[in-house]
Amino acid sequence: MYLEELIEDAQLENDKLECKALLNRDDVIGWLKSVAGLANASGGEFYIGVEDKTNKLIGFDRKAAATFKRTKNNPSVKIITGGL
């Protein structure tokens, strides 16, 4: 399944869309640069669990999603779960 199947106007990565397969805790600076880039360019969408070159949904399990959401404690974080 691909992001385009869930989000009607989804495109491959650009200045308004960033995808990460996962957030590597060993490379916090790397993914924070992506978030800062979107913020500095008047915003955009940031998807985790999506391959960045193909928009293929790879997801992560519910336990990891719940842990991530609790860790970030941010109501703007939306986690898509289901049969991926």
Please, could you describe this protein's structure?
It is built from 2 helices and 2 strands, in the order E-H-E-H. The protein has 84 residues and is α+β, with helices and mostly antiparallel strands. A two-stranded parallel ribbon has the order 1-2. Helix 1 links the parallel strand 1 and strand 2. The longest helix has 13 residues, at 28-40. The model has no long low-confidence stretch (mean pLDDT 75).
In short:
By secondary structure, this protein is α+β, with helices and mostly antiparallel strands. The chain contains two helices and two strands.
Tell me the layout of helices and strands.
Elements: E1 17-20, H1 28-40, E2 45-48, H2 62-72
Parallel strand pairs: 1-2
Throw out a few tags for this protein.
single chain; 84 residues; alpha+beta; two-stranded parallel sheet; 2 helices; 2 strands; 10% strand; globular
Mean pLDDT: 75
Query: How much helix, percentage-wise, in residues?
Result: 25-40%
Distance between the termini: 7 Å
Derived from helix and strand composition plus strand pairing, the structural class reads alpha+beta
Number of strands: 2
The shape, in one word, is: globular
Written as H for each helix and E for each strand, in order along the chain, the element string is EHEH
**How many structural domains in the coordinates?**
1
Kindly provide the radius of gyration, computed on alpha-carbon positions and rounded to a whole number of angstroms. Answer: 13 Å
Widest sheet, order of strands: 1-2
Q: Give unreliable regions as ranges.
A: none
Give a short account of the largest sheet.
2 strands, parallel
Q: What's the total helix number?
A: 2
Strand content: 5-15%
